[in-house]
From TrEMBL:
Reaction catalysis annotation: DNA(n) + a 2'-deoxyribonucleoside 5'-triphosphate = DNA(n+1) + diphosphate
Presence of keyword Cell inner membrane: no
One Pfam family from the record: DNA_pol3_delta
Residue intervals of the DNA polymerase III delta N-terminal domain: 20-138
UniProt keyword annotations, A-Z: DNA replication, DNA-directed DNA polymerase, Nucleotidyltransferase, Transferase
GO cellular component, as recorded: DNA polymerase III complex
Enzyme class: transferase
Protein source organism: Sulfuritortus calidifontis
EC number assigned by the record: 2.7.7.7
Protein name: DNA polymerase III subunit delta
Stored InterPro entries: DNA_pol3_clamp-load_cplx_C, DNA_pol3_delt_C, DNA_pol3_delta_N, DNA_polIII_delta, P-loop_NTPase
Domain DNA polymerase III subunit delta C-terminal as annotated: residue spans: 218-331
GO biological process terms, semicolon-separated: DNA-templated DNA replication
Coiled-coil residue spans: none
Amino acid sequence: MKLRPEQLAAALKKGPVPVYVVSGDEPLLVEEAAALIRHALREAGVAERQAFQAETGFKWAEWLASFDSLSLFAERRLIELRLPTGKPGVEGGKTLEAWAARPPADTWLLVLLPRLDRAGQNAKWFKALEAAGALVTVQPPTLEQLPAWIGERLGRHGLKAERETLAWLAARVEGNLLAAHQEVEKLALLLPPGPVKLEQAREAVVDVARYDASDLPEALLKGDATRYCRILDGLKAEGEAPPLAVWMLANEIRNLYRLASGQARGESLAGMYAELRIWESRQPLVGRALKQVNLAQLSQALRQVGLIDRAAKGLLREDAWELMKQLGLSLMGQRTVPLIAEVI
């Protein structure tokens, strides 16, 4: 049975199932789902909890056999099994299939996994566990969803913030969901129930946003100049080396150039999307960006990227971060930037 995180509490009230699987890459959300399951099982009289982590050398056969030999007087127990890689191997997969087929008496299993790819989700052991109980897949909120996520968390403490305040909070904790949770808890401690003013949030919240170079292309495609610059500034402040960011930016510009030149020759956009492996979820963003730039701009941008790459490697006495910022703003129509070669 598949459950969305928001459905888990109601499902637990109906009574526990033999197996729970929680899958996701966001530690805060995985732990919150696991905590709900633990609490519900304690309420149902499951008093004992044992935790295991399956890594290289894990003795699967012994692990399973130990639960088959429980005495008549053993307490009801919850067994937590963490699979850090999400891959139990051949022996582990067969062991989990055997558990799902015949769960030990008075024993409940909670499996904690990272987010699995399609192959992992189609594995026999994963399908068996899902069929034997409940699967909860957790995903962090997107940037667009983050203000509402923060607002919902504030509401649990009787706090209410206006849209501007929520947007400001989201910008300060982007990419760091645990920090977002901690800042909400801090506001709940500092403020009485009621409205949260922007000034109050500014006084209480530390800027703990974390950025990844992979966030750059999305900001560029969306034409979000503020976020694009904030990502570059954040990466630079965190001491990241620029080559990866340059590569991510160059790859996006190359794709746009290929699409724009193909369109000029009358090629099918759908065919080019398939060639470049631009998935359906990103195609509206890419299509929007194509309408904002022309082939000449993209050709110049590619030459610029080559020079930025040299600057990132220390071959030019230029700040690669600042040059990436200028190039992105130029493509977004925010300013006109000469080629580096023209200003050296």
